[in-house]
Amino acid sequence: PGSVSCINFSPIAPHQFAVTSEKKVFLYDPNTHKSKKTFSRQQRALYSATFRHDGKLLVMGDENGTVNVYDMDLQNPLRTIAAHNKAVHLTRFSTNNSHIMSGSDDTTLACCDMLNSTVITVLKGHNDHVRCGVVSPSSPSVWISGSYDHSIKVWDVRTGTSTLSFSHAAPVEDVLLYPTGSVIVSAGGNSVKVWDLFKGQLLTTLDNFQKTVTTLTLDNTTKKLIAGSLDFNLKFYSTDTYTMQHSMHYNGPILSASISPCGSQLVVGMSDGMLSIRHKKKADITTTLSNNSGTFDLLDNTVKVKERKKRARVSKKDITTTKQPKRISYTPYEYHLRHFQYKKALDRALMSPHVEVVITVLDELILRQSLEIAISGRDEETLVPLLKFVCSNITDYRVSKTLILVAHCILDLYSPIIGQSDKIDELFQQLHNQIKNHIELQQKLLKTLGALDTLINTNRLVK
To answer: How far apart are alpha carbons 343 and 48 in whole angstroms?
Structure first.
């Protein structure tokens, strides 16, 4: 299985969805989750398979620079358009249903006429790969594109010129336009940025990601903005306040995500070929892409059990009562970790007299790649307890591996403030002395080990 680079739902019920995975595009039934059909192009890598607004056609790009249009009932392409001279990573149907938007690694966008299989207009202005874009729902002549040259451009296809440009300050992986046509969202690097299209200015930046943000989508109510990242997390934001409401952790770096138009299914694709399908108020379903559609038997057995229960006659003997499970209580540091309040979690752990509690929190922060977030931005009052803990325990072989990482992080962040606080300077000196004494002890132990090795080897030779 290859990485899942694109997921797109059909706008028409029952909302089948297309999954692009390297050299194949799989068409899935939303009810059985089995692959109904597979599209391929002579072992070429395929990209960005998306439906037309009537759900009858599917368009995708390939590594040879060709735009391919498929009918749902045919195996071979209905149209092939030689639009670019490098790989086409972006394809979208225009809202007029006859034109196609394509973007390529040759730094251009093309407006293609599907009926005549020709290129109408070539849009030039980017200086690097064009990897994402969207057609305005209110005007087929307004396009938005994102490029690895860090720019988001608004185009007037009628004149072939860029009318507005924003700088994301990182290679742009995905762009999204609100249905109102007034707000653009861009993803790239470790941040998501929200732009006011009419005022031409930045509204807000969402930067609580540890790795590159790769995908954006809106839920069916447009009240939630969803962003997926290579840090394994899918995060949900309110489109009113742009505060994070919750997040989901997956088992691999996220490359693509999409929600069905009816809002009943969330499908997420990962770089290792995993495809996760979540149902509203149902158990999660996770599977791996495969050429054999038989491996996608994702029907939940609990549904069959419920159907049998409905058909069965219920007697009093069959009725049992169970006590409600007790509500789980969390420690203060567990509560803060669950709410991504990493500094507070570490502060509460440092209040504990038990070393293992602090080490558990530090290990969890390292696992979440959030250690720097928890340690940074501290004043003397909050940094001193952490430094004291490191100084007291760094030579303990049971926890030294964790505390060496913590010490490196502290030195990277706070070495510029040495000389500004007597307490901090004293603790840094204490840490230096602890490590120096431990190294001297290790050297003596190595000498002792060498002497023991000599005695043992001499004894063996005598025997």
So the answer is: 40
